[in-house]
Amino acid sequence: MMPLFALLNVTGEAVKSLPDIIAAASKSPLGVVALSVIALGVLAYVFFKEARERTRVAVFVLIFGGVAAYVTALARTSGLGGGAPSTYRVRAIVLDPQNTPVSEAKVWSSLGGEPMRVEGGWLFTIPAETRPKDGVLTLYAAIPTAFVQGNTVVPLGEDHNPSVSIRLVRQESAQVRGNVQDRSGRAIRGARVSVAGYGNEAVLTDDSGSFALPAHAVADQQVQVRAEADGFDVATQWSPAGNHPVTVVLETRARK
After folding, report:
1. Is 22 strand, coil or helix?
2. Which CATH number does the domain 175-250 belong to among 3.40.50.2000, 2.60.40.1120, 3.30.930.10, 2.30.30.40?
3. Terminus-to-terminus CA distance in the chain, angstroms?
4. Cα–Cα distance measured from residue 20 to residue 6, given in angstroms and rounded to the nearest whole number
5. Mean pLDDT of 168-192
6. I want to staple 224 with a disulfide (CB 3.0 to 4.6 A). Which of 81, 196, 198, 212 is the partner?
7. Which helix (H) or strand (E) element contains residue 78?
8. What CA–CA distances, in Å, run from 213 to 173, 174, 210?
9. Neighbour order of strands in the sheet with 192-195
10. Would you place residue 13 in the very low, low, confident or very high pLDDT band (cuts 50, 70, 90)?
11. Across residues 108-125, what is the average pLDDT?
12. Residue 196 clears pLDDT 50, i.e. is over it
């Protein structure tokens, strides 16, 4: 194994990222085949260790071939084997709206697959043959419970070891929509509807009692809707923003 360690110690950078190189090489097509061959060779040795010398030699050749192929996969992944590396290793760090690194985010990519957790962030290993035609990878991150999400675009070019950050922000572009009706289910036209705290943005319902207005919240976040109309008591109701229509029922005002 001395040639392998000599190969991986050519530069200090390679030493620091040795676990990443091994992980990426093991997921590459050549690495998968090599590990399969090694495993097959070990099993063959266990079952045929009492066999004739010719058989044992064949088993050792099989194991050696698998090891050689795996070393080649490591060399290609690290970029030390000549030519371009066969795998992109994209490191990502996720930052919250205060620019502080977070570890509880959900992270994924436009190419699918699960990233590996590494110190300080996540690692995406992308075989060169799966590189998109436009050479662009998009990384996404979100913390659903905090209603924050973000994404960043990564060009997959000559740099096979890019490091990027994904900034999380509140996507407060969702709307709240629905309709206002009376207890009998009849639409109330001209009802004034607003989101709590944003009364200056109130809208009037149309002939079908429908309304839509900015929620000042992210999708699925609860907001308080206020509706009022002549002859009816004011009603407030909590509703999730986004694609969740709300029905607000107004009670006829009791005559004094």
Report:
1. helix
2. 2.60.40.1120
3. 94
4. 17
5. 93
6. 196
7. helix 53-78
8. 10, 9, 11
9. 203-204, 192-195, 222-228, 235-240
10. very low
11. 90
12. yes
Domains 87-167 and 175-250 in one fold:
yes
Residue with tokens 């990443």: 20
Give the whole-angstrom CA distance, residue 73 versus residue 21: 9
Backbone φ, ψ for residue 198 (5° rounding) = -135, 50
Strand pairing partners for 227?
193, 235
Long-range pairs of 159-163 with CB within 8 A, sequence gap ≥ 24 = 160/79, 160/84, 160/85, 160/87, 160/88, 160/89, 161/17, 161/79, 161/88, 161/89, 161/90, 161/91, 162/88, 162/90, 162/91, 163/90, 163/91, 163/92, 163/93
pLDDT band at 78 (very low <50, low <70, confident <90, very high): low
Dihedral through CA 155, CA 158, CA 160, CA 166, nearest 10? -20
pTM of this prediction? 0.51
| Residue with the larger pLDDT of the pair 96 and 85 | 96
The domain spans of the chain are 2-78, 87-167, 175-250
Closest C-alpha to 117, from 128, 107, 127, 131: 107
Q: Any idea what DSSP says for residue 144? A: G
